[in-house]
Design a protein that fits this description.
The chain is mainly α. It is built from ten helices and no strands.
């Protein structure tokens, strides 16, 4: 179906361009996932504590936190990357490359995760929380031993959804110098009219998403 020359050319591009981009995407997505989940989890805990039905309701603090989360989530990922590029340059020292892409992707992802985790914590049966409180449990004990523990299946689903989302947004970062498969697909594939590079990049992204979803489904079932 394909000539030997085609495969030789394809292997050359894969070895020098696509292969390194795969690892760049994995590093970008992995770092973003870790940082965004840590920050988002912290925000979710604060929202769960100070929310209207929280452990220690405080409207002013909750409104500030909610404003930060909602404002960040209102920006499409690509617009956010461009809009905060001056801040990215101040923090990272550049607006080009993997490290520069991780910063805005983390901010966008943290807000997304925070909101989903907050909703997950809200779904925990209030009777369990009241029972823990009646036994003298502190707020942190209630959060980690009741709310988080009861939400583990939901947290796994959120992590799976977020990771797939980060794979997608990492390709957008490639459009503005972030590197990875998005940059390869756009620069070496679409703009260079090289369909083999374009569709190879798309296929690899497809495989990544399928693997993440399969592992997430397996982990979710194990947690039930």
């Amino acid at each position: 179906m394909f000539s030997n020359e085609f495969w030789i050319e394809w292997l050359k591009y894969f070895d020098k361009i696509v292969g390194p981009a795969v690892f760049a995407t994995m590093r970008m997505v992995g770092a973003t996932m870790i940082l965004a989940f840590i920050i988002g989890f912290g925000f979710a805990i604060l929202l769960a504590i100070y929310g209207p039905q929280g452990l220690r309701p405080k409207k002013k603090i909750y409104n500030v936190l909610e404003f930060i989360v909602n404002t960040t989530r209102s920006f499409p990922a690509l617009i956010l990357i461009v809009a905060i590029s001056p801040i990215t340059r101040m923090v990272v020292g550049t607006t080009i490359g993997e490290t520069a892409a991780i910063f805005p992707l983390t901010i966008a992802g943290a807000a997304f995760i925070a909101r989903l985790l907050e909703n997950s914590f809200k779904e925990v049966d209030m009777q369990l929380i009241e029972a823990a409180r009646s036994f003298g449990a502190s707020d942190m004990q209630i959060i980690f031993k009741v709310m988080v523990k009861e939400s583990i299946p939901s947290i796994i689903s959120i992590a799976t959804l977020a990771l797939i989302g980060f794979i997608a947004t990492s390709t957008l970062a490639g459009a503005v110098g972030g590197g990875g498969l998005g940059a390869v697909a756009l620069n070496y594939g679409y703009q260079s009219f090289n369909n083999s590079i374009l569709y190879t990049s798309v296929f690899i992204l497809f495989i990544m998403v399928q693997v993440v979803q399969s592992v997430g489904n397996w982990w979710y079932k194990k947690s039930l």
